[in-house]
Amino acid sequence: MTLLLRRDLGRVAYEPTYAAMQRFTAERGPHTLDELWLCEHPPVFTQGLAGKPDHVLAPGEIPVVQTNRGGQVTYHGPGQVVAYPLIDLQRAGYYVKEYVYRMEEAVIRTLAHFGVTGHRVAGAPGIYVRMDDPFDHAALTGPRPGDRPFAGLGKISALGIKVHRHRTYHGLALNVAMDLEPYTRINPCGHAGLQTVDLSTIGVSVEPAAVAEVLSQQLIQRLVP
């Protein structure tokens, strides 16, 4: 059975952590255990490979770091749980599309643990909640004519990955109890006007450490074959 070793890094600067993920991935061999890194970052904007500079509106004093993950610009900061699964997909026996699905499912199950219903949106990786009723279990319906994209939704979890020789790094972020103001300085994930929320905003008072515990259990359960 493949194992997934959990490492709790605490609050760590983004760039050294990014470099450590790259180093781990480059140096790992066929028998290296997969790992799950859990952490929190000081305020930082990160750009994906597809990131367009005009989606960074007014970063101010918050640094912007260019990365090699997929996707566009997002924000990391205190009060957010960040998870970096370092997985050998070839050994795990599933492909990238299923890997993304399994990570999103782990977030959905984590939110459900706290009574919140998370939703996928086709073509927009990450997890979203209904702003009018985050606890409503009904499935999303398609947008009505004239609706703006993501009408009525708030993004609570962002996802961006890199796969090198079947080995993954980067990962996902789940917003728990943050200062959400920095999201107004960007078009989150490249979507102008997309509202970003955290558990605190929608009425769930919980410590990030408690969310990290549930999320890690869900990720380990779903990413290990």
Helicity range of the residues?
10-25%
The CATH superfamily is: Bira Bifunctional Protein, Domain 2
Radius of gyration: 17 Å
CATH classification class: Alpha Beta
Low-confidence stretches: none
Quickly count the domains: 1
Shape: globular
How many helices? 4
Could you give a short account of the major beta sheet?
A: 8 strands, mixed
Please name the CATH architecture: 2-Layer Sandwich
> How many distinct beta strands?
11
Structural class: alpha/beta
Q: Beta-sheet strand percentage?
A: 25-35%
Strand-and-helix sequence, N→C?
EHEEEEEHHEEEEEH
The N- and C-terminal alpha carbons lie at a distance of 7 Å
Mean pLDDT: 93
Query: Per CATH, what is the topology?
Result: BirA Bifunctional Protein, domain 2
Secondary structure layout:
Elements: E1 4-11, H1 14-27, E2 34-40, E3 44-47, E4 64-66, E5 74-76, E6 80-86, H2 89-92, H3 96-113, E7 119-121, E8 124-130, E9 153-164, E10 167-175, E11 195-196, H4 208-223
Parallel strand pairs: 1-2, 3-4, 9-11
Antiparallel strand pairs: 2-6, 3-5, 6-10, 7-8, 8-9, 9-10
Helix pairs in contact: 3-4
What's this, in brief?
The chain has 4 helices and 11 strands, in the order E-H-E-E-E-E-E-H-H-E-E-E-E-E-H.
Please give a structural write-up.
It contains 4 helices and 11 strands. The protein is an alpha/beta fold. 23% of the residues lie in helices and 29% in strands. Helix 3 runs antiparallel to helix 4.
Jot down its keywords.
225 residues, alpha/beta, BirA Bifunctional Protein, domain 2, 3-stranded mixed beta sheet, globular
